[in-house]
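Worked example

This section walks through a single chain of length 93. The input is the sequence exactly as stored; nothing has been trimmed or padded.
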Amino acid sequence: MTLGPLQSAGACDPPKFAEPLRITPADLLRLRMESDLALGEMRAEVVRADYAWQRHLGRWYAEGREAVEAGEPEAVLLTRVLEGLRRQVLVPV
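Given that input, the structure is written out below as tokens.
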């Protein structure tokens, strides 16, 4: 049963049966080579995408680490201010 894009479900063709398919050894070899080539291209694309993702994560990590390290003086300053407020004394900045 086959349905065309503009046919209704009630307008069906009679069932069609596939004829036996004959594949020669040369056809099998060609199919194998083509599938290996396609899979190789997919693997290469996955490796490139993974490498790009790892590089991107590395940049995020480096930027985050720099931000945290740059924030230490601010944390030290905030600690000094809070201690000064607790003692009700002005602390030079």
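What to look for: Residues 29-90 form one domain.
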